Amino acid sequence: MTNAPFDFKPKEIPTDAGCYLYWDAEDKLLYVGKAKNLRKRVSSYFQKTNQTPKTQLMVSKISKIETRSVGSEIEALILENNLIKEYRPRFNILMRDDKNFLYLRVTNEDEPKLEMVRRVVKDGSTYIGPKTSARDFRDTIKFCQKFFGVKMVKPGQDYYINQLTGHKISQDEYRLNIERMKRFLKGNTAEVLKDIKEKMMAFAKEQKFEAAAKLRDTLESIEKSTQKQTVEFSDLIDRDFVNFYRDGKNIYLVRMAFRQGRFRDLNQLKFRGEEFNEDTDVIRQFLAQFYEKVTDFPREILIPVELSDAEAMESFLSQTFFAGKRVELIVPKIGDKVKVMKLAQINAKNQAEKAKVAALSQAQNFSKALPELAEVLQLPTPPERIECYDISHLSGTHTVASMVVFENGKPKTSEYRRFKIKSLEKDKIDDFASMEEVLRRRFMRTQTPTEFEPSSNLVRTELERLTMRAVESESDWDAYHQIKEHEILRPHNGPDFKYNREHKDEFKTKNHPMVLTYNDEIIGSVRLDHSTKTRLTLRLLGFDKAHQRKGHGTVALQLIEQYALENGFKSIVLKAHVSAEKFYTKNNYKKDFWKGDTSSDCLPMGKKLVAHKEKWVLPDLVVIDGGKGQLSSALKIFKDLDVEGFNPKTQVISLAKREEQIFRPGKSVPIELSFDSPALKLLQRLRDEAHRFAISFNRSLRAKSQTKSILDDISGIGGTTKKKLMQTFETVSGIREASDEALLAVINKKQLENLRRQL
After folding, report:
1. What is residue 158's DSSP assignment?
2. What is the pLDDT of residues 295-348, one digit of tens each?
3. Domain assignment present for 680
4. Residue 725: phi, psi to the nearest 5?
5. Nearest to residue 434, comparing CAs of 392, 388, 387?
6. Looking at the whole model, is its pTM more than 0.85?
7. Exposed, middle or buried, 156 (CB in 10 Å: 0-12/13-18/19+)?
8. Which of 54, 151, 428, 560 is the most buried (most CB within 10 A)?
9. Is residue 538 part of a domain?
10. CB 444 within 8 A of CB 615
């Protein structure tokens, strides 16, 4: 076994209930676990027997162990779940499809409407889900439209209005249909069928035979869709069956939902997990991560393995997700429940096999596509890195570009990039100029970057004279305190201010006292706070009297920003005295950048830092979305840029949308590949992905612009409040449709009055 890189001392681990966190040498979280007895659980990882190679690998990477004690096993579960969601540690079991959940939203208004959404928002609407198949959900929506006459949030999607009755229905009748639909979707089909039968008989008595016939057809369709199933439960208890199948690090889970004794829904999910993760860990993490997304809770959850902390997990689910509703975890032993558990596992295994076939098919296509592409483009070797670019705008507004990257035929999403086009005048449409700009900006990044770019030539010169270093000697401390007391604190606090050089803040490990020197003479004091990993807090900045108002402050800020970037910080925040507001504003620091306390003489300000720009890897092939004109425009930038190791004459092509023709520089005749060509399919996938990525960016910018123009006009709604509103309700329509109670959880009564009046 590989020894741990540190001396593990069991006595340093408490015996409390709580969570343990394993960190590596780079301060990255490896694993989070919970335990009833932390010392006993953590010690088990360092025993030399009964350890799998994967466990040994994780233990060998541990550089630090952190424990967090809590009062009970339930609190430990809550903390573990929150930590895993926040950090997504490498060796924990994690849901891979957590961004692909879909919900049916029934809006909270006089005339409720349907909408398919990806998040549940506390806006008073009814949410039904989650679904993990968009196709299944669209079929459900069509069914609801056709047989309940329900309208959609987007009017253009109202395909089946009034199919239920054959005539225009009243608002009361419409609301009744909505309630029927909700009950139906939640599994109460018997009640809906009874309502429809009664309505059908009423129409028949009134001799409205056409309407009665439509209801008869509806009745038959619903009865057919809910006909006798393989397994039904006569006790009518709402229950879920959960089972899984492992394939290496991939864990395929299936949840089969039974409502009112009948099978109603199936969710297929994929989790990432190490081989040393026990089956009980798989189930525990599924329960903790999946049921946060569920809106219709079961009374029982049937699982394939016994959990040692089953009672605590039941309480955790009840208190955290199920709004206090009691839930019971059961491992079935005999009868139909065992049959359904086996069926869930078969579904999970089928899911794994389908994924394998898809991956194999994709790999075969890739293996054929790249050599074929090299052959038709006369490249010396198959292109490993391919980049594709696209431009998107709406009538000239918010023009953006996308860059997507495929490596060895597969998307590398971590290297996708988006660009705002800066060179065009407002509302001007010029795709050629836009493409030139984005390619110029991208290929400029292939040049060796500078370590730090000062804001001006003056600052560059002064940086050679002004330096910042840590306080080291007694004389440093004396100068640091003299400047801090007489030039910073006393002027703001009055002549009677009593200064304490031994204040505890000076000696906290998070605080870093610094001095500024000019030509080796100490002229300023700085204190930097490292209390968070991504944000540096500037607690103190000042100069002695002889060096004030001489431009040293701007240079000092550049030094502090350089220091922050070198230490991995992404932003700087501070509380600026009102007298210094202009100084910080001039240096691009913004008010209300963070949630610091505001007072009459103190402003929370801050600045996002531009990280050191790394040199970008050169592509083997560049694909431009468009025809011969787009290709010619793209090639212009390479005349000005001498990109070493890249030949645009052979490594740049364009793909025309309509005829799917490939254009190359200097060739008048395009290449036309067969429809089933793997090379063409790969280029099409690249082009489509670039198009999707560009459009999504354009839409997000337009949405932000629209949000800003609407909410900014409402008095009393500032930037922070607007951000909270959008985080909570997602859209302006979501804010408009939210109940007063939901809104008052975010804003005060006065703001609510203004919002209702002006929105």
Report:
1. -
2. 888 999 999 999 999 999 999 999 888 888 899 999 999 999 999 999 999 989
3. yes
4. -60, -45
5. 392
6. no
7. exposed
8. 560
9. yes
10. no
